[in-house]
Amino acid sequence: MYWIVVLSSAGRAVPAMSTNDTIELEKIPGIGPKRAKALRVAGYETLDDLEAATEDDLRDVAMFDDILARDIKATVSPDDERVAVKQPNAVTPDDWRVTKRQLTHIRTLADDAPLELDAETALDLRDRLEFAVDPDLLDFRRVCGRVVTYDADTDEYHPVPNATVHVEDTDCSFLSQFPSDLGLGWFYPYDCTRETIATTTTDECGEFCVYVPTWDIDRVLSFREERLCLPEIAKPRLRDVLERPEVFPDPVRPPDLRPRPRPDPLPDRLFDPGVLERTTELLGDAAVRRLGAGTEGGSFGDPRPDLGIDLDRPAFPDPPEPPTPEGFRRPEPDERVELLGEELPVDREVLGAIDPDRFVGPFLACTDVTLPEWRTIVDVPDITFRVTQDVDGDGTEETIYSEGYFDVRWDEAGSVDVDLVADDEANSIPTCDGLTPENVECDGPSIDSVGLMPTRAPIYDDETGYARRINRPKPSGSTSSRPDGTAPFSGTLQLHGCHRFEEAEYYRVLYSYEGGPEQPFTGHEWHAPAIGRDPVHVQPTGSDGWYPILDIPYLESYYGESLGDNPLLFPYWLLNWNTRGYRNGTYEVRLQLGDANGDPLSTASARYAIEVDNRAPNLDISRLAWGKLSDPVEKWDNDITESCPQIRRPAGENIGIKVTFRAWGEHFRSVQAKMNGCNRNPTLYRPSSGGSSQYSYWHETVGDRNHRKTVAFEVPSGYQQGAYRLRLRAVSRAFNPAGGNSGPSTNWEYDNGRIDTWFTRSISITNQ
């Protein structure tokens, strides 16, 4: 496959595609994975199929409207006079408006620039400087991102669709604060000037892309590289924290002017004594537990398949405030200057110019430069993002994300992605995965899926409410054959089904708990994504749980305009059920339809059982002891009971540490035990493991809910003195079918450890 850039008469760059090789539909601008799936369902498998289709043909495909059908035809048309199209939700080179500050920088790059250098767009500028500037600087780099909100209670990100992303040329001065004992720092911006370069909107999944001129990236990097430490300042990711010397000590190496991504830190090292505590201080317990969770397909502590995704999450989605001296937060500048003007080594004008409640960070402090706690940095250029959205429906967009300084890592090679975490007030959607129209055939009222999981056998058991192929038992001695399991549901569940029938205007979902009386779900509301429009606020009409059916007449009234097609991405979404607010156990749910008066119709769906369990397994340690390896394990009677235990290892003696534990729960799945420390992984001594460094047990039958065991680890005399850590992890069978983690896989056959319990104990080993 190859791409050709064709210039239309308007001078825009338009992607053309060769038909010599098969091209993935997902790669065609404007389509993406969901629309590609809809095309294949409609019979369009290749680029040739799209070229042969008419616009009318494409309009009949699910999730395609008039505009998208026209744009796709223009993109794949073999006609050299094709109409240039803009990729949906992207800022292209002909959208990028060149500012005066950018022109000033370009003049420093061009040896033979036109005397009257002027341009309206980046594409115009490239044409004018084709032979005056290094060709590499005339390229464009794609920066893609997403706008999300963060839910601290669930540690989840939720997409913000149809928000306006403003790309800005920013020049700002900063007062920096890097307290010496934290390893973190904050910036207080002042004297900022901004100029909008371009705008775009996030798509129905909160995503957007920007094509940034390389010469503008050079402008930002050149300024930073001339100043100590500034090139290292960026909104930190989890992986950045784990590369800190105070967390993971590494050999000293010279600073890299343009840092390159390093291999993912090994999760095992997270549990080295001291590292765990320091990482938890910086990131919080939830982040550390998520990063350290093992993969069921490999050894406990091995990198999980989605570890890279976790490592690239923002380190501080809910940023902490900086510690400030008394009086610093005074709103009146004169009071601030009077109180602190003599105390802080900061220019009095700067102290008066900042807004103490407006700060950016935290950032990680440089490790190879001694930073003063307070410092002023003047006129720092950047390309920043600001996001607005009509949050309250009054027709005016409010700012939901700003202060986007140092968001983008311009010095990293490869693709550049950025997460913009918006204010809690932003209208976000729970998920961008669900049941799309091409997957639904409606003969009557029904609940067709829980999340992405179909409510049909053999994947799901509608009598017991369990998923049958996730976290299945592993019978003893069996290497391949695994019987059906009993995996309960957890977290927030999206129920999808058939409710769009001519006589119905309302619907509700009823439930009974453990065979009790039936009642409607009440109080649940959410935002549903719509293609090319604001998300729809779905809420019940009253206390009896009735929801309006979001058909075209309803949506025309909601949006105040005529609609040709239903724009909902998931038009069969019935309920967004956060099960964390409900008791664990078995629920029977069914769909009921209502007429225009909210009176129930005679038709209703069948009942579907859903087993819910958000509980973590229990984990109990009954004994921890050590002894000489030359003695039988049963005689290791040096109990470890102190809160800060220390083992005095006899000189030249191999020793062992044993732990007796029990893991149990209604839906207990597995338990693992492991030791590590001083860059060592002590070998499992009892039971015999053939050199393995971990013990693991997986439930063997669906009724296997309890496991008690004594395991021992060998610490040879040659192992370094220092701190070692014993850790155990018990995991539930529960899962969530919304599409995250490792599922859904083929036929929903996968293992996932969503809910777990940890036990860790640090032990100091010194030689006598």
UniProtKB/TrEMBL annotation:
Name of the featured protein: Helix-hairpin-helix domain-containing protein
Phylogenetic classification of the source organism: Archaea, Methanobacteriati, Methanobacteriota, Stenosarchaea group, Halobacteria
Region (Disordered), start-end ranges: 246-272, 292-332, 465-489
Compositionally biased intervals (Pro residues): 316-325
Annotated GO MF terms: nucleotide binding
Compositional bias annotation for Polar residues: 476-489
Basic and acidic residues bias (residue ranges): 246-271, 303-315
